[in-house]
């Protein structure tokens, strides 16, 4: 089972492909940032769509897990991130992926056991859960995407086991 985890942003999108198989620890097949360079909103959203479409084409995930916008102090940032989330949700739906959404609080609670955990605590637990990423040096957005994918795995494990793998 392959899970595409996405941490949406206004100019960058954290992305991770997590592969989970029965009896094996989760593996991160891909982790990175999709950077958007356009200044116009419509072009920025198009770029996000293209990045995501390419990830889906290359990695063929079974499901998409994306962070829900929980709250934001800055209204403009919240609107920009919401627009990006809309593109992410639409792109996943057009690709036929089942889409799961999780709040930051849910991700922190599932990954660390504490919904108030900070980013360092989340990263530490990710590295303990997936030892192969212990040397990964990346932006917080990348670790957030991995955490979102891992949350999806833990939350949806039973449902995902019942679904056959795409060929």
What does this protein look like?
With 167 residues, the chain is α/β, with parallel strands linked by helices. It has a single domain (2-162), classed as Nucleotidyltransferase, domain 5 (2-Layer Sandwich), CATH 3.30.420. The protein has five helices and five strands. It has helices spanning 41-59, 75-94, 104-112, 119-129, 140-162; strands at residues 2-7, 12-19, 27-35, 63-67, 98-102. It has a five-stranded mixed sheet, sandwiched between helices. Helix 2 (75-94) links the parallel strand 4 (63-67) and strand 5. Helix 1 (41-59) packs parallel to helix 2.
List keywords for this structure.
167 residues, 5-stranded mixed beta sheet, 49% helix, alpha/beta, Nucleotidyltransferase, domain 5, 20% strand
Shape by Cα distribution: globular
Overall tally of structural domains = 1
Main beta sheet: strand number and arrangement? 5 strands, mixed
**Which CATH class applies here?**
Alpha Beta
Mean pLDDT: 89
CATH topology: Nucleotidyltransferase, domain 5
Please identify which CATH superfamily we are dealing with: Ribonuclease H-like superfamily/Ribonuclease H
Order of helices and strands: EEEHEHEHHH
Outline the secondary-structure elements.
Elements: E1 2-7, E2 12-19, E3 27-35, H1 41-59, E4 63-67, H2 75-94, E5 98-102, H3 104-112, H4 119-129, H5 140-162
Parallel strand pairs: 1-4, 4-5
Antiparallel strand pairs: 1-2, 2-3
């Amino acid at each position: 089972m392959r899970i595409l985890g996405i941490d949406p942003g206004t100019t960058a999108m954290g992305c991770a492909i997590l592969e989970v198989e029965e009896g094996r620890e989760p593996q991160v097949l891909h982790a990175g940032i999709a950077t958007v360079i356009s200044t116009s909103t419509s072009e920025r959203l198009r770029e996000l769509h293209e990045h995501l479409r390419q990830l889906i084409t290359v990695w063929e995930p079974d499901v998409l897990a994306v962070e829900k916008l929980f709250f934001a102090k800055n209204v403009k940032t919240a609107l920009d991130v919401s627009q990006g989330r809309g593109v992410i949700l639409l792109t996943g739906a057009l690709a036929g992926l089942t889409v799961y959404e999780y709040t930051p609080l849910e991700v922190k609670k599932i990954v660390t056991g504490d919904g108030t955990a900070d980013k360092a605590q989340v990263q530490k637990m990710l590295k303990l859960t997936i030892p192969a990423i212990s040397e990964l040096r990346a932006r917080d957005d990348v670790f957030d995407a991995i955490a979102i994918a891992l949350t999806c795995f833990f939350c949806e494990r039973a449902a995902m086991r019942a679904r056959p793998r795409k060929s």
